[in-house]
Design goal:
Blueprint (H helix, E strand, L loop, with lengths): L4 H22 L2 H8 L6 E6 L7 H7 L2 H4 L4 E6 L2 H9 L5 E5 H9 L5 E9 L3 E5 L11 E4 L5 H12 L8 E4 L5 H6 L5 E5 L2 H7 L3 E5 L8 E6 L1 H6 L1 H20 L1 H12 L3 H9 L1 E3 L2 H8 L10 H14 L16 H9 L6
Parallel strand pairs: 1-2, 1-3, 6-7, 6-8
Antiparallel strand pairs: 3-10, 4-10, 4-11, 5-8, 5-9
Helix pairs in contact: 3-11, 3-12, 11-12, 11-16, 14-16
């Protein structure tokens, strides 16, 4: 049965539109005031607190790198990843760290988000875990994913495809990554997509890693994105945020133990979870961004343009997006390219 595209799209549009309208009605000066004072207040960046690489921005803050580089930044943290998206949609944040595929859904819902930097590309930080020994054993089984038509759904479908299975060969259950292991233990599902630190918890209990993001690179990337007006009105600040992040990454690489201790005090994660979280992703330097992820290379899945084409195709096929986006209007490489010309190799 063919489902009307507009009806499918409304599932994503309506929640965003509802919260924006309600906020404006209750206080019509909130959004206006945010615009008026944009140049006078800190740049607010919101992130998911369970993903360890996100804390490189916190490391930049604690090491005084933002201050050194002349930019005032306020970091906001959310336990629930979906609240990161919601608060950004409500204009409670100027920028956010999020999964690249969700940038498309934000823009499709009329909430502009332009990517300026790739934080990391997941390798072993995202995985399908379960009781089975391999993916082929999941035929006719129930598999947990974090939302139908989500990046989690796409990742899992691509994994099943490599094992010769189609979407119709399994049953999907909508379960947050933090609840995948408990759901397996209760027998509610046989396997599911989750990420660090939950992968290590599952393997410690004897469950198997059936597939990792490293086996299908580029599908899951974490990026830094901002509202368009922030990029237009505060370009120097955006460049200095990227510079500070690059310096924080350099500090982490050279002083890992000290960096982990700093992150430990804020994150609530264990030292081992932080270390494993960083090891599970390819951390992208300024040079990596210029030469790989922000470069328009349709044949290299390390490029957001290549992975973006795959993601776009998925959303078009599912009826979530009405037309293919112009990727160059979503991916803004200007900031990394300009900074790289000034400082090819940023050192702390």
């Amino acid at each position: 049965m063919k489902i009307n595209n507009n009806l499918k799209l409304s599932r994503f549009l309506l929640p965003f539109l509802f919260i924006v309208v309600i906020t404006f009605v209750m206080n019509p000066f909130v959004l206006l005031d945010a615009q008026t004072n944009l140049s006078e207040r800190p740049v607010r960046i919101i992130m998911h607190e369970l993903w360890p690489p996100n804390y490189l921005l916190y490391l930049a803050q604690e090491r005084g790198l933002f201050e050194k580089n002349g930019v005032n930044v306020e970091l906001l943290f959310e336990f629930d990843y979906h609240q990161v998206l919601n608060r950004y949609a409500l204009d409670e944040a100027d920028g956010m760290l999020l999964v690249f595929s969700d940038v498309f859904l934000q823009n499709e819902a009329g909430i502009d988000a332009k990517v300026v930097y790739t934080l990391d590309i997941s390798q072993f930080g995202d995985a399908i875990i379960g009781k089975a020994k391999n993916l082929t054993e999941l035929k006719s089984k129930k598999v947990g994913i974090d939302g139908i038509n989500s990046f989690s759904h796409l990742f899992t479908l691509k994994a099943l495809e490599k094992a010769g299975l189609s979407e119709g060969d399994v049953q999907f259950a909508d379960i947050p990554p933090a609840n995948i292991l408990p759901a397996i233990e209760k027998g509610e599902i046989d396997a599911g997509h989750t990420y660090s630190p939950f992968i290590a918890l599952a393997t410690a209990k004897g469950y198997n890693v059936l597939f990792t993001a490293n086996e299908n690179p580029g599908i899951i990337a974490d990026v830094l994105a901002f509202h368009r007006n922030v990029l237009e009105e505060r370009p120097a600040d955006i460049e200095n945020i990227i510079k500070s992040f690059s310096e924080a990454l350099d500090f982490y690489n050279k002083n890992t133990n000290e960096a982990v201790d700093i992150i430990l005090a804020k994150s609530g994660l264990s030292k081992e979870q932080i270390i494993q979280g960083f090891k599970g992703a390819k951390l992208m330097s300024l040079q990596d961004n210029v030469l790989l992820s922000m470069k328009n290379d349709p044949k290299n899945m390390s490029s957001l343009f290549a992975s973006g084409a795959v993601i776009s195709n998925f959303y078009i096929e599912r009826g979530i997006m009405g037309e293919y986006p112009i990727l160059s209007e979503i991916i803004e490489a200007k900031f990394v390219n300009d900074l790289y010309k000034k400082i090819p190799s940023i050192k702390y």
